Amino acid sequence: MQYDMMKVAIIDESPARASIIEDGLAGLDEPEIHVLTKRHGLLAQIEAIAPDIVLMDLGNPSRDVLEEYFAVSRALARPIAMFVDESDDEAIAEAINAGVSAYVVDGLSKNRIRPLLDLAVKRFNAFARLENDLKEVKGKLAERETTDRAKRILMDSKNLTEPEAYGELRRKAMSSNKRVAEIAEAVVTAFEMMGD
Amino acid sequence: MATQNLTIGFLPLVDACLPILAQEHGFSEEEGLSLSFMKDVSWATVLDRLLYGHTDAAHMLAPLAIATTLGLGRPAQPMAAPFVLGLNGNAVTLSKPLAQRVAMPGDLPDPAQLGAALKKAATKARSDGSRLRFGVVHRYSSHNYKLRYWLASCGIRPDEDVEIVTVAPPFVADALENGEIDGACVGEPWNSVCVERDVGVIVLATAQIWRRGVEKVLAVREPVLDRKREQFEMLIRAMRKAGAHFVDPANIGQNSDILSAPQYLDADANLVKRAISDRLVLANGAPPVHFPDFMFQHSEAANFPWVSQAAWLYSQMVRWNHLEYDAQDASRASAVFRPGVYRSATKSTGDDLPAANSKVEGSVSQLTQVGAHQGSITLSENIFFDHRTFDPEYIEDYLAALS
User: Fold this and answer.
1) How many domains does chain B have?
2) Which residues of B touch A92 (CB under 8 A)?
């Protein structure tokens, strides 16, 4: 019953991550969730919502502003680390490692905080993995583009066919113990420096 | 000797310069040390990373290291500051309309005169049913305490006559532009960014409030300092060498370029250069004004962690009701500054080393020779603008006299 009353504010300037976290918490006995993605007017919104728990990413630029606000309006939240005993310190460390910072109101019981925090950590980690995957895909795309450019440079300057150009890149990569993409990048860089 | 590594957290501000330059110019390598850096955008994050071991040390607001030791805002954890990263280097920037009313844009006025004019503006705002609002970078910052010191000395009560709020440095220009604040006390290059965007006018350097006011420190968790004492002594020596390089006018251009790089300040090198060369452009389009020692990173043993500096900061925390005076807290706060570590790191280098660990702050009003480990060091003027002095042995008397 009490869980229905719990208000959670998720502050994240990345709407994508905020919604992933919100999604994760939705499975949890339905606390009332508020997602705040804009820096402007943040304190007024927090004041209006009066959340029991504030979850935000560790690197959020508004943290100092919020902590000042919490320190002044004493009734409101404190860093979650203020409430844990040693047995839970590890959980906080895990949260910090995952990039989560949490603030909770004084008096909120530990067994209500913990599942929320654990879920938030899981969701943050999942988002970080997604981001990494995306970065990898983007990196691969960029590498392919560079390799194509290097091939064209070799084809034009040495009068090679495309397979021959690729063969050159691969041979050089093998003999210098590097990846084809690295050799391709060197070719493109050298070409850019020589050109014009 | 195997190279050892230390990771250092920082905020993109000019006064993060010494560890960065120690690494970039190879001074740390000479000591057998390599440094990695972790950049963040809020002090809360820099602090959390330090407390949870993501970093070994951090570029940190001196009062925040003291607050953390005393358990304000975080569970108490003993912090140590064996090295002061610099003195001053911050400024007060006002919105253009307010600057027009209280100052001569383009000039650094006398702090007391400026304060008197500001007092009128604050009174006028109150009679119109509002209050002038100032931004500082953090609740526990020297920016906050120096701004409050100046306002209070000019008869402006910081918590009644005006309002002081926290604004992160990168957002000060935005906040001035859209009228969220009327002024701010912030480090460089963020004042210069306001001037460049023509949304604010620099009217006061914090060096005008306290000529030799303590600013950032290298903060370390006490157990980490104990465990890695040797590496930290290497770091201290490397940063002293970086300081000598930093203050040499011949290196200003090169150091501005290094610090402005994307992985460090990610800033306009021309703006960074203004702070480093003590030549700030105070109002958009105005010629630069040379204000010597706007930043003070090296000479006169500037990096020596005088325990009296920590004690002054503690006195200001009490003064503005961030905590209640307690003799034990006072000594814990003072003990955050670790002159002993600085001494043992530099004793065999022939570097300037004061003989004492504490001094009466604000008492030097002309060139003065003070005792040193060997010979003497000449300290130049270190006064507060209102000529008060602070004796760390009598914090309560000092506070009583202020109230």
Assistant:
1) 1
2) 52
Q: pLDDT tens for residues B6-46?
A: 999 999 999 999 999 999 999 999 999 999 999 999 999 99
**Residues near A140 by beta carbon (within 8 Å), at least 6 away in sequence:** none
Report whether pLDDT(A76) > 70.
no
Of A42-51, B32-41, B189-198, give the lowest mean pLDDT range. Answer: A42-51
**CATH classification of the domain holding B129:** 3.40.190.10
Question: Which candidate from A39, A63, A97 shows the least CB-CB separation from B44?
Answer: A63
The percentage of residues in chain A with a pLDDT greater than 70, rounded to a whole number, is 89
Q: Which domain holds residue B191?
A: 90-209
Is B44 touching A (CB cutoff 8 A)? yes
Query: Which residues from A are below 8 Å from B when comparing CB atoms?
Result: 39, 58-65, 67-69, 71, 78-79, 81-82, 92-93, 96-97, 101
% of chain B residues with pLDDT over 90 = 90
Residues B283, B294: Cα–Cα separation, whole Å: 16
Give yes or no for a contact between B86 and B302, defined as CB atoms under 8 angstroms apart. Answer: yes
Contact (CB, 8 A) for A101 and A58 = yes
Set of chain B residues whose Cβ sits within 8 Å of the Cβ of A65: 165-168
Instruction: Tell me the C-alpha distance between B280 and B126, whole Å.
Output: 32
Main-chain dihedrals φ then ψ at residue B206, nearest 5 degrees: -65, -20
Which of 3.40.50.1980, 3.30.70.20, 1.10.260.40, 1.10.10.10 would CATH assign to domain A136-194? Answer: 1.10.10.10
For A150-184, the pLDDT digits (tens) are 999 999 999 999 999 999 999 999 999 899 999 99
Question: Which residue of A40, A42, A57, A64 is the best one to mutate when testing the B interface, meaning the one whose CB has the most B CBs within 10 A?
Answer: A64
Q: So what's the architecture of A2-132 in CATH?
A: 3-Layer(aba) Sandwich (3.40)
pLDDT digits (tens, 9 = 90+) for B166-180: 999 999 999 999 999
Contact residues on chain B for A63, CB-CB shorter than 8 A: 42, 44-45
Of A64, A81, A92, the CB nearest to B42: A64
Across B11-78, the runs of DSSP E, i.e. the strands, are 33-39, 57-61
Give the residue extent of every domain in chain A: 2-132, 136-194
